[in-house]
Recover the amino acids of this structure.
């Protein structure tokens, strides 16, 4: 049961929210994005994360929902 509760909590953070709010972004420069995040391995402790811009965009895009549901065969 603990595993299913973990999955529900994880998915719950993404179902009705945007991937990252503007107020969590601390700094953007030519190479990196620095933002506030929660470390769920440490009971949600706040931390600052700095990622190269390309890596930030890769992770951001993983949380963007597609326009149409994925259907096997490529047709929606």
């Amino acid at each position: 049961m603990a595993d299913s509760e973990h999955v529900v909590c994880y998915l719950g953070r993404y179902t009705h929210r945007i991937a990252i709010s503007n107020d969590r972004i601390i700094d953007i420069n030519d190479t990196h994005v620095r933002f506030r995040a929660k470390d769920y391995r440490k009971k949600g402790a706040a931390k600052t994360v700095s990622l190269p811009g390309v890596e930030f965009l890769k992770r951001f895009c993983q949380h963007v929902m597609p326009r149409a549901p994925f259907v096997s065969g490529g047709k929606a």
Summary: The mean pLDDT is 80.
